[in-house]
Design brief:
There is one protein chain. With 502 residues, this protein is of the alpha/beta class. The chain has 18 helices and 20 strands. It has helices at 57-65, 67-70, 92-98, 115-125, 130-143, 159-173, 189-204, 240-244, 248-254, 273-277, 323-330, 350-355, 373-378, 384-397, 413-425, 443-457, 470-476, 494-501; strands at 15-26, 34-42, 46-51, 74-82, 85-86, 99-102, 177-181, 208-212, 225-230, 233-239, 284-293, 297-307, 312-316, 338-343, 346-347, 357-360, 431-435, 462-466, 479-483, 489-493. The strands form 4 sheets. It has a 6-stranded mixed β-sheet with strand order 6-7-8-3-9-10, with helices on both faces. Strand 19 (479-483) and strand 20 (489-493) form a beta hairpin. The two termini are 31 Å apart. Residues 1-12 and 267-274 have low confidence and may be disordered.
């Protein structure tokens, strides 16, 4: 029998968060975003909020950290307290002293240029005395093992290190509750391990931690309870040990990511390796390519590989190693220091590569220009009557059809990601490049993206995908371009790659 935690409606002394019959609707929205939320969280609990994209988990965290109603306007009904502060009347300034937030991209919350000053900034902003701040920073550096980072510049840090600094600034302030919104979305394997290590330390220190997350595998040893949301409601609440013991099929039916990567099985590719490589010639051939910044700094050196029509190639490696730079060179947005790139065995200059390429950026906000979702789908296309019919099919497939008249900026992060991929589907280019296309996506939408990529590859395209998403890699890729730490890139089979990570 599924364990469903009984909601405690009467507030107890050790409840740091207590919500009763909370409803919220964003200003301008046509439907409720949270419906009848009843929840109590005790001091020291590690809570994971999960569910399909758009289920309301981010909105719930905003009610907890005070961004609703102070920053995100709308109608908030019901009653509740967070650290004994009323959710409807306390200012965000008072809430931020008790509740610290860490966002998916920590750069959005940094205010200074150096680690040392960033950790102290929230405390200074609250007017805490200098002596107390210095003592708190010393304690933070010692407890969270941050000494190697203290003399570094913020923007020289890896993504995982930036998350550590964001958490450290909350810890130094002395916050009682930590709220994290999809903190692993842009992290590589090492960054995810660093995030896990610091969350483990915070849990051991008795901190109350709430993580809104799609990726679950790295949290499985920390979870006390899991809140499963659907369509703005809390559907079920599970004890951690009950949740992680569920079968892979159970997670699949719930539309959730897996908690145990070792149980994942690769899907049969539409093409077999032998079929791909027995083609008469590759679609893309790279010969002795090198790229870097300045005279002496090479990101990667003397790399060569081929890619065939119908092949989906994963590009993997740690943050900052040069994956995005390779994509920009291949599609003609950057020039290599040396080497040749051939399309259908003919040397392809930058202009030709750009003409034959489509690109989905990691931060998709940078590639939206039109005032509505539908108009965005049709930018740069001819014969709009026929193309509109295709656009409607893709929007329906990606569950965006009800948003087609809305401005792209009003979409959620996951919806924007799906829109960018749908736009790429509209352009019939030989080469398709995607940078972290499943960032912020639940299991169901990850599977849709995987399916559409396989389908597009079948149309004689060669597709390159940068990712840190192992679940996605297992069911999508034919081969891997693996970035080594020695400025080299190795092309390998998916099986070889799996032996490295699992």
């Amino acid at each position: 029998m599924i364990y469903i935690e009984k909601i405690i409606l009467q507030e107890e002394k050790n409840d740091v968060i207590h919500l009763e019959h909370v409803y919220f609707t964003y200003e301008g929205s046509h439907k409720e975003n949270l419906t009848d939320i009843n929840l109590s969280i005790e001091q020291g609990e590690f809570i994971v909020i999960t569910g399909e994209s758009g289920c309301g988990k981010t909105t719930l965290t905003r009610c907890i950290n005070g961004l609703i109603p102070s920053f995100y306007k709308g109608e908030l009904k019901g009653k509740g307290t967070v650290c004994k502060q009323n959710i409807t009347s306390e200012s965000i300034k008072e809430r931020s002293y008790k509740v610290g937030s860490v966002f998916q991209d920590p750069r959005s919350q940094f205010f200074t240029m150096h680690v040392k000053t960033e950790i102290s900034f929230p405390s200074e902003n609250h007017g805490i005395h200098t002596d107390k701040i210095q003592k708190s920073i010393s304690k933070t550096v010692d407890n969270l093992k941050l000494l190697p980072l203290m003399e570094r510049k913020i923007f020289d840090l890896s993504s995982g290190e930036k998350q550590k600094v964001a958490l450290a600034s909350v810890y130094a302030l002395g916050s009682e509750v930590y709220v994290l919104d999809e903190p692993s979305a842009n992290l590589d394997d090492e960054g995810t391990r660093q995030l896990y290590d610091i969350l483990k330390i915070l849990k051991e220190k008795g901190c109350t931690i709430i993580v809104s997350e799609h990726k679950l595998y790295y949290l499985k040893n920390l979870i006390d309870r899991v809140i499963y949301m659907r369509e703005g409601r809390i559907q079920e609440i599970f004890k951690g040990e009950i949740f992680i013991s569920r079968s892979p099929d159970w997670f699949h039916k719930k539309g959730l990511r897996q908690v145990d990567l070792k149980q994942l099985k690769t899907m049969k590719s539409q093409y077999q390796f032998d079929d791909l490589y027995n083609q008469s010639s590759p679609l893309l051939r790279v010969r002795e390519l090198s790229f870097g910044y300045g005279r002496d700094r090479l990101l990667w050196n003397n790399i060569s590989f081929e890619s065939y029509a119908g092949e989906v190639v994963g590009i993997v490696g740690r943050n900052g190693i040069g994956k995005s730079s390779l994509v920009k060179v291949l599609m003609g947005l950057s020039s290599p220091k040396q080497g040749r790139i051939l399309l259908n065995e003919k040397t392809a200059n930058k202009r030709k590569r750009i003409k034959n390429s489509s690109y989905v950026m990691q931060d998709v906000d940078y590639q939206f220009f039109a005032p509505s979702v539908m108009e965005e789908m049709l930018v740069g296309l001819n014969d709009l009557g026929e193309e509109k019919e295709r656009a409607n099919k893709y929007l329906k497939y990606f569950q965006l059809d009800e948003w087609k008249d809305c401005h792209p900026a009003t979409l959620s992060g996951g919806q924007k990601q799906r829109l960018a991929i749908a736009i790429a589907c509209m352009h019939n280019t030989n080469l398709l490049f995607l940078d972290e296309p499943t960032s912020g996506l639940d299991a169901a939408n990850m599977n849709k993206v995987s399916h559409i990529i396989r389908k597009l590859a079948k149309e004689n395209r060669s597709i390159f995908v940068i990712t840190h998403d192992y679940e996605f890699a297992l069911q999508t890729f034919d081969s891997i371009l693996y970035f080594n730490d020695e400025n080299t890139v190795t092309k390998m089979s998916l099986e070889e790659y799996l032996s490295k990570i699992i």
